[in-house]
Amino acid sequence: MIPLTTVVVIGLTVLVLLAIGIGLAEAAQRSAWRRIAAERRRAWEHRQRQVNRQRQMHRGRETESWGDEDD
Predict the structure, then answer these.
(1) 50 Cα distance to chain centroid
(2) Which residues does the annotated region (Disordered) include (predicted)?
(3) In the chain, which stretches have pLDDT less than 50?
(4) How far is 5 from 13, CA to CA, in rounded Å?
């Protein structure tokens, strides 16, 4: 029979090796994730600029239409 301490040591060794493997995989993909995040941020900023432009264009029209109802 395998002593309990041997099972614990083997389990901890597996966890450490797994953590090292995941860390290496994450490090290899880090630049790709940063590039994707930068692209998404640029796209989001572009959409926000468009929405703000549309709001500014419509702001004058909305004010005029409300002004017509007050008469």
Answers:
(1) 21
(2) 47-71
(3) 71
(4) 12
